[in-house]
Design goal:
heterodimer, A: mainly alpha, Ammonium transporter fold, 13 helices, 2 strands, 1% strand, globular, B: alpha/beta, Ubiquitin-like (UB roll), Rossmann fold, 3 domains, four-stranded antiparallel sheet, 15 helices, binds iron/sulfur cluster
Chain lengths: 311, 447
């Protein structure tokens, strides 16, 4: 009789990479539904193109590089879907396609593949698209019109006349997945229940943006509008929590989140762009590894003991 | 006081269900194969030869120095062989095979009587002569643990009844069936070391054991029972000490440096047997579960072969893929069923081909789960990268030597990375390196 001799532990959690990424896709479903409901089939097309191109890019790259094809881990599908959800429904399909290709090939694979990228691929793609075709990405349709309807300014560019209620439900213009806050919160609940992410990053990000906005504006209404408008909530739940690009230590995660909250408000209040979350998260992504490295780790039994000096 | 520790995981405890409610039964096999290096430290040296008649409790392996314990015959009968056999260790181990004559003839015993009246000075020598070593898994010689240096002082003795591992219920059953002996053993040690505070620590999912131990310790001087949050690895020595006393054992140090000694419940019961009855350690309770027809807790003689005890449990219920000594988080896989159990074998768990299959490692997705579950506060994903690159210096700098090999990080890794296994490997290499360096230095000074 030959017995297997693999070492302990002999049982593993039921969570796998595929399952965790699948959880993110499920958590995004309410946002997808809201997007299609508010913006029509045009939005569905954008999402389909962005997701399919990301998966295709990953497949082709891994084939060409003679790596094991890992599209079944669903991480490319998540990136693709996220890209679709953070652009305007009026954006031409080839733009999202370029975005997905860029995210997968340049931001993810050139830096070593899953886990090794230091920037959030979806956000980096959005930043590049914003820089290349600024008007295409930010001209959002007003809700209630068909996709090719008159473009309205984003809620951030003209804030007046929009009620908090409309913001919450997503009855405003904006990117496909970012507008309906209720859908985002449902997704957040799912991610927390399935232990896919921890509460720390989303809660600290939103809370710090709210508090900082309150300090600089002095208005409760303005601060509520701040956290309910634009991509802040979506970014805090789905972007800032990206595994590879957020810190690992709990204290580092808190500082990282506060950084995102504050930079977002700073860019919105004093910057040239109406929407700051994308850049805030990308900047925090760059700082994340430093935070992990320089915030002292608390190791059992090592506290108070002098660090060994390297010879 | 916290009653818990940071990090940790929650593996399912359903694996304990088949055995936890069933009374322990005794099983004695036809032959036993008793190995000489059960304990940490020097192996014992066989002092009987083929053809000898032995009695139960007779010394058949003599301790080699202080860091060693004697080995006793667990059955009476004829010595069939004294030869090295392959064991879980790298090198084969010396083993003595005894054909049981089922007469159960004991050597003459020298009981010391009631633990509350025994001369405290006699306790530790009695423990040493009884061949007792840590029965929770490590098998560290107990008398060594209890022999304090002049500058060491102990103010708390913790009895580990956490049994946080999966599958195992042997300690649980012992606490229910032999509660008084555990308290007796604890009291003997408390008196030997002149310690006022003895704490029996049990996870709060074993309410019946907590009740039984509370009842047994009622009116016993200085003994308390404390319930702990059910979380793995609550029974880890360091985690237990922190949960009970709030103290942290310094990195690289021993519990005694924070004035604590931790003993397993089985060890305590064995100590009581040694004092009250004068009996050496020749049997223990082991949980046999997994893919066997009749999962049970058996009181087994040390040296019982796995094939025999599986037979006693009705045989395999499915084709066996992997057999493990101990629970799923830290247990050691065994190469075949001709292997005997030792003093520290708390469980024999049979996995089928599917559950026992080795999992394939994926790339690290930096999800941070390993970091958040590590009870020591290490960065397992980083140590793994260093270990894969064979960079032992970096492993050391990342505190791999503080890793307690609890398996939590590997358990929770969605990418199925072999974190714990590679840390074990790295730790062994580092220890070997240090030994070589020390030897080289000694050789240098000798010249
Ligand atoms: S749990 Fe596994 S995948 Fe996640 S960071 Fe640790 S090693 Fe990487
Ligand atoms: S095996 Fe080591 S590194 Fe992994 S969780 Fe346990 S102590 Fe931490």
């Amino acid at each position: 009789m030959s017995l297997i001799l693999s070492s302990a532990p002999h049982i593993r959690t039921h969570n796998t990479t595929t399952r965790l990424m699948g959880n993110v896709l499920i958590a995004l479903a309410p946002c997808v539904a809201a997007g299609v409901y508010f913006f029509g089939l045009r939005a569905a097309l954008v999402l389909a193109v962005s997701t399919a191109s990301a998966v295709l890019a990953e497949f082709v790259w891994q084939k060409l590089a003679h790596q094991k094809v890992r599209i079944s881990d669903l991480s490319a599908a998540v990136t693709g879907l996220l890209i679709g959800l953070i652009v305007s429904p009026t954006v031409p399909w080839w733009t999202v396609m370029i975005g997905s290709f860029f995210a997968i090939i340049v931001v993810k694979q050139l830096f070593g593949g899953v886990g090794d990228n230091f920037l959030n691929p979806a956000l980096a793609a959005r930043a590049v698209l914003l820089a290349s075709w600024p008007t295409r990405l930010t001209s959002h349709p007003a809700v209630g019109f068909s996709a090719d309807a008159v473009s309205a300014a984003t809620p951030l560019a003209s804030m007046k006349g929009i009620s908090l209620n409309d913001l919450l439900l997503g009855h405003v213009g904006g990117a496909i997945g970012e507008t309906c806050k209720i859908a985002i919160l449902v997704g957040l609940a799912y991610l927390l229940i399935t232990r896919t992410i921890s509460w720390r990053i989303p809660v600290f990000t939103v809370a710090s943006a709210f508090l900082f906005n309150l300090v600089v504006s002095g208005s409760l209404n303005d601060s509520l509008t701040c956290i309910l408008s634009g991509g802040l909530l979506f970014g805090a739940v789905f972007m800032a929590t990206d595994y590879a690009t957020s810190p690992m230590q709990s204290y580092a995660q808190m500082i990282y989140s506060v950084l995102i909250g504050i930079i977002t408000v700073v860019i919105r209040k004093w910057g040239v762009y109406p929407e700051g979350v994308t850049y805030a998260i990308l900047i925090a992504n760059i700082v994340a590894p430093l935070l992990d490295r320089f915030i002292p780790q608390k190791i059992y039994g090592v506290i108070g003991k002098k660090k060994e000096v390297k010879a | 006081m916290k009653g818990t520790f940071r990090g940790g995981v929650h593996p399912s405890h359903k694996s304990k269900d088949p055995t936890k409610g069933v009374k322990t039964r005794e099983y004695v096999s036809d032959t036993v194969k008793i190995i000489m290096n059960m304990n940490i430290g020097a192996p014992a040296k066989p002092c009987v030869k083929k053809g000898d008649q032995v009695r139960v409790g007779q010394v058949i392996g003599e301790a080699q120095g202080f860091m060693s314990v004697p080995v006793h015959a667990s059955v009476s009968g004829t010595v069939l062989a004294v030869e090295p056999i392959p064991y879980l260790t790298e090198a084969p181990s010396m083993a003595i095979t005894i054909q049981n004559d089922f007469k159960d003839e004991w050597v003459e015993l020298h009981p010391l009587g009631d633990v509350e009246h025994v001369d405290p000075k006699l306790v530790i020598p009695a423990i040493q002569n009884a061949g007792i070593c840590g029965m929770g898994g490590a098998c560290f010689p107990t008398h060594v643990k209890l022999s304090l240096k002049p500058d060491q002082k102990c103010d708390t003795i913790i009895v580990n009844g956490a049994e946080c591992e999966t599958h195992l219920t042997a300690d649980h059953r012992l606490m229910l069936e032999n509660s008084k002996r555990i308290v007796d053993g604890l009291r003997a040690v408390m008196r030997a070391l002149d310690v006022k505070n003895g704490v029996i620590a049990i996870e709060d999912n074993k309410a019946d054991a907590i009740a039984a131990m509370k009842e047994a310790s009622f009116g016993r001087q200085g003994v308390t029972v404390k319930s702990l949050r059910t979380k793995y690895p609550q029974g880890g020595e360091k985690q237990l000490i922190e949960a009970i006393t709030g103290r942290q054992v310094p990195s690289g140090g021993l519990p005694i440096q924070v004035n604590v000694v931790v003993l397993n419940v089985g060890t305590c019961a064995a100590i009581a047997d040694a004092i009250i009855d004068g009996k050496p350690l020749i049997s223990r309770i082991t949980t046999i579960t997994g893919c066997v027809r009749n999962p049970s807790n058996l009181r087994l003689r040390i040296g019982t072969l796995v094939e025999d005890l599986i037979g006693e449990c009705g045989g395999f219920s499915e084709e066996a893929g992997k057999i493990v000594f101990g629970g799923a988080m830290t247990g050691l896989p065994i190469p075949n069923t001709a292997v005997p159990i030792a003093k520290a074998t708390n469980g024999v768990v049979v996995y089928n081909k599917h559950d026992g299959a080795s999992v394939e490692e994926g790339p690290c997705i930096r999800c941070g789960k390993c970091v958040s579950v590590c009870p020591i506060g290490l960065n397992p994903f980083q140590i793994k990268a260093a270990a894969d690159a064979d960079d032992l210096e970096k492993c050391k700098a990342l505190h791999v030597m503080d890793c307690i090999l609890c398996g939590s990080c590997s358990f929770d890794c969605p990418s199925r990375r072999w974190l714990t296994a590679s840390f074990k490997n790295a730790k062994q290499k580092i220890t070997l390196q240090a030994k070589k360096a020390a030897a080289a230095q000694q050789g240098g000074t000798a010249k």
